[in-house]
Amino acid sequence: MEWCVSNRPITASKIRSGDITNRADLSVNTPQPTLTKTINKIKRIPFAKIGFTLSLLISVGAGAFLGRIIPINALDWGGLLSGRKPEEVLMEGLGRKLERPYQILVIGVDRVLDARLGSPESFNGRSDSMLLIRLDPVDRSVQMLSIPRDTQVPIPGYGVTKINAANVYGGASLAQEVVSEKLNGVEIDRYVRIDTSGLSALVNALGGIEVNVPKRMKYKDNTQKLNIDLYAGVQTLNGEQAEGFSRFRNDEDGDIGRIKRQQIVLKAVKAKIANPAVVLHLPDLINVMQKHVDSNLSFDEMMAISTFSMTLKPDQIQSTSLKGRPSEPNEFRFSYWIVSPEDVDQAIADKFTTKQKTQ
Question: What mean pLDDT value characterizes the chain?
């Protein structure tokens, strides 16, 4: 059978317009009773399409369906013989294989509270976090660079200000331009924007994440409707608690401490998603993507990146933050994170590809 997949950008609105033309091809003769409710739920979600439905069916035991939907040459038989995990090989066969490196700018944006959830306007808030990610299938590595939201940058047409304003002034395209210019002309292939409530919804869909909270955290932010109240210790955080943990900045570490906590949350989410049992949460995860994510990644690219990310080991993922210094109290009108050319060189060299040269 042929895979009918659009290469158009994926946005919150476009995700809802699913193609159901090949739905009949996905039926099984006699579904197990324990699967019926989950399978039916997925069929009602347009974005699930073929790949997600097949992943669910196969992962929970409908092995007899395998030969019908995965071409024999789509499986890495050599990898299986050399010791690759069967689930990794299946995931690549079901989805897409990442064929080249990608550099992606991930932007966590403050919710525009008066905009409808999932609408284009809801992603036009200030960036609460910025993360430049390089996924390299050649050496099977991921490089993640966190960019402090208060980083001082020139924004065309608006003068010198904080980097978190770029998304407000010109959306994802301007944010990519500003980040690239600040980081020695780094190449940015795609963007992903996630509203800040998306993290909470994702963690809830996963059934919570385990995090070691280092200290007592208590803070209330009425503007963003945050009520952070956490005690120290290893614990399972729900969505609201995980969002509070990652966004807390009411201490001496400020934004840099928050970046470290965001990286902790990302690793905890990655560990939870890597669990094969997560397939049972696919309907909720897809709903989260529909409402809280805007991206110009195609469906094929999303599938390939998801497959690649879920098969990585922790030591293959390296994360760091853009070094610099806080501005002095009377140095500028506003407080900034000041980044030197040497700081940028250290963050980019041998890790990311720039437009000037290939590294």
Answer: 75
Residue 27 lies in a domain: yes
Short-list 216, 283, 269, 221, CA closest to 247: 221
Number of domain units in the chain:
1
Q: How far apart are CA 10 and CA 183, in angstroms?
A: 26
Q: Which runs of consecutive H residues, i.e. helices, occur in 1-73? A: 12-15, 33-43, 49-59, 66-69
Q: What percent of the chain shows pLDDT beyond 90? A: 35
Return all residues near 82 (Cβ < 8 A) that are at least 6 apart.
Answer: none
Alpha carbon distances (Å) from 302 to 98, 239, 278, 306: 10, 23, 17, 6
Q: Which structural domain, as residue segments, surrounds residue 44?
A: 12-94
CB count within 10 Å of CB 296 equals: 18
Measured between alpha carbons, how far is 175 from 166 in angstroms, rounded to an integer? 5
pLDDT at 14: 41
Question: Residue 180 phi/psi, 5° resolution?
Answer: -60, -45
Q: Establish if 337 belongs to a structural domain.
A: no
Query: How do residues 149-166 score in pLDDT, each as one tens digit?
Result: 999 999 999 999 999 999
Q: How far apart are CA 270 and CA 313, in angstroms?
A: 10
pLDDT value at position 85? Answer: 59
Give the pLDDT score at 186. Answer: 97
**Cα gap 348→187, rounded to integer Å:** 11
φ and ψ at 237, to 5 degrees? -95, 140
**How many Å separate Cα 164 from the centre of its chain?**
18
**Does pLDDT of 100 surpass 90?**
yes
CB 52 within 8 A of CB 282: yes
Q: Against a cut of 0.70, is the pTM above it?
A: no
Cα angle 148, 265, 326 (rounded to 5 degrees) comes to 20
